[in-house]
C-alpha cells in the first residue's frame, strides 16, 4: 500500500507545473523595425532593433553617438557584460535601439538634411509608434545621441524620462577640439567610400578609435578591432547643431519637464573643472553641475564612471553598477 501511494505521489508531481524562480529573467523577443519618418517633405526610414521582455510596460528608445550605430547598446565582445539592452531586458525593460538617419540601416539622405532637430523629429515618430504598446517611454542617448534625445524630449514632450550619457553642457574644448582632427570625409575611407555618401558625412581616421574614444581604458585588441570594423558616420550638421543646442545658445534641455539621469565618465571631454567640463568628481558633484541646465526637470540623478574614455559602454569594470543605476532610476518614477 505504501509503495502504491509513493508511486501515485511521484506521478502527480510529474504533472504539476514547476514554479519559476522569482528572479528568473522573462523571455525576450527581438525584431527589426523600419519606421517611416519624415523631414519636412522628405520621406526617410529609421531602423531600430526592438527587444521586449514578456510583460514589459516600459521601453527605452536609445540613440547612439556619432560614428556609432544601434550596436553601441549591445556590444557582443566577451559575452553580455557590455550590453545595455540585455541588462535592461533582464530587468523587464524593453529597448528600441535605433540607427540615426544617415547611418547603419537607416536612410542616407544628403548630409545637409541630417542635423539634431531632424534626427529628433525622426525619433519622435518612432516614439509615437511605440506609445500605444507601452505605458512608459524613456528616451536616451550617447554623445550626439544625447543631444538628439534632449531635443526630442524638450521639443515634443512625449516621454516620461531622459537618459543622457557621454554629454554634458560644459565641454573641455582644449581636449575636444583636437580630437576632431581625427575625422575625415567618409568618401576618403576605404570601406565607407563604397556607400556613395557625400563629403558632409564624416568618420574617423583608421587606427584612431582607441585614442579618441577608449583611452585611458584598457587597450583590448578584440574590442578595438570590433570598434574599427563597425565604425560608421556622423554628419557635419549633427556636430554644429549639437554644439548650438547643448551649450552655446539656450540649451534645449531647459524645456525638459520629466526626470533626467546623466551618466558620464570622468575622463571624457565633457568633464573637468567648470566651465571647461562638468564636475564629474562624484555623482553628487555631477548633479550639482548639470542640474541648472534642467530647470523644469522634477529630478536629476547622476552616475560617474571612472577610468574609461568617451565610449564607456565598452567598459566591463563598472558595467553592472552603471546598468543597475539606470534600472533603479527609471523605476523611481
Shape: globular
> Roughly how many Å is the radius of gyration?
22 Å
Helix count equals 10
Q: What is the CA–CA distance across the termini?
A: 59 Å
Task: List strands and helices in order, with pairings.
Blueprint: H1 2-15, E1 28-39, E2 42-53, E3 58-63, H2 84-90, E4 94-98, H3 116-130, E5 136-142, H4 144-156, E6 161-165, H5 173-179, E7 183-185, E8 201-204, H6 209-214, H7 221-229, E9 234-235, H8 236-248, E10 260-265, H9 283-290, E11 300-305, H10 319-330
Parallel strand pairs: 3-4, 3-5, 5-6, 6-10, 10-11
Antiparallel strand pairs: 1-2, 2-4, 7-8, 8-9
Helix pairs in contact: 3-4, 4-8
Walk me through this protein's architecture.
- There is one protein chain.
- By secondary structure, the chain is an alpha/beta fold.
- It contains ten helices and eleven strands.
- β5, α4 and β6 form a beta-alpha-beta unit.
Short characterization:
Helix content is 31%, strand content 20%.
What descriptive keywords fit this protein?
333 residues; eight-stranded mixed beta sheet; three-stranded antiparallel beta sheet; globular; disordered N terminus
Amino acid at each position: 500500500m505504501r509503495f502504491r501511494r509513493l508511486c501515485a505521489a511521484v506521478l502527480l508531481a510529474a504533472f504539476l507545473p514547476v514554479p519559476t524562480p522569482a528572479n528568473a529573467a522573462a523571455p525576450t523577443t527581438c525584431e527589426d523595425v523600419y519606421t517611416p519618418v519624415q523631414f519636412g517633405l522628405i520621406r526617410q526610414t529609421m531602423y531600430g532593433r526592438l527587444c521586449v521582455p514578456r510583460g514589459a510596460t516600459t521601453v527605452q528608445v536609445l540613440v547612439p553617438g556619432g560614428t556609432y550605430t544601434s550596436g553601441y547598446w549591445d556590444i557582443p565582445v566577451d559575452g553580455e557584460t557590455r550590453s545595455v539592452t540585455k541588462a535592461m531586458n533582464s530587468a523587464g525593460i524593453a529597448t528600441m535601439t535605433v540607427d540615426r538617419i544617415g547611418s547603419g540601416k537607416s536612410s542616407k539622405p544628403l548630409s545637409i538634411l541630417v542635423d539634431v532637430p531632424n534626427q529628433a523629429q525622426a525619433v519622435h515618430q518612432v516614439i509615437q509608434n511605440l506609445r500605444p504598446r507601452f505605458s512608459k517611454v524613456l528616451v536616451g542617448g550617447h554623445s550626439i545621441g544625447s543631444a538628439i534625445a534632449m531635443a526630442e524630449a524638450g521639443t515634443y514632450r512625449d516621454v516620461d524620462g531622459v537618459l543622457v550619457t557621454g554629454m554634458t553642457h560644459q565641454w573641455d574644448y582644449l581636449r575636444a577640439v583636437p580630437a576632431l582632427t581625427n575625422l575625415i570625409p567618409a568618401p576618403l575611407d576605404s570601406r565607407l567610400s563604397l556607400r556613395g555618401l557625400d563629403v558632409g558625412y564624416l568618420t574617423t581616421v583608421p587606427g584612431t578609435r582607441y585614442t579618441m574614444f577608449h583611452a585611458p581604458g584598457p587597450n583590448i585588441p578584440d574590442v578595438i578591432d570590433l570598434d574599427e570594423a563597425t565604425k560608421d558616420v556622423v554628419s557635419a550638421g549633427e556636430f554644429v547643431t549639437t554644439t548650438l543646442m547643448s551649450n552655446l545658445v539656450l540649451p534645449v534641455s531647459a524645456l525638459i519637464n520629466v526626470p533626467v539621469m546623466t551618466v558620464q565618465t570622468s575622463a571624457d571631454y565633457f568633464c573637468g573643472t567648470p566651465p571647461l567640463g562638468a564636475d564629474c568628481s562624484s555623482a553628487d558633484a555631477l548633479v550639482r553641475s548639470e542640474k541648472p541646465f534642467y530647470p523644469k526637470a522634477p529630478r536629476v540623478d547622476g552616475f560617474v564612471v571612472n577610468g574609461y574614455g568617451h565610449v564607456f559602454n565598452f567598459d566591463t569594470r563598472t558595467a553592472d553598477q552603471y546598468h543597475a543605476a539606470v534600472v533603479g532610476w527609471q523605476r523611481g518614477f
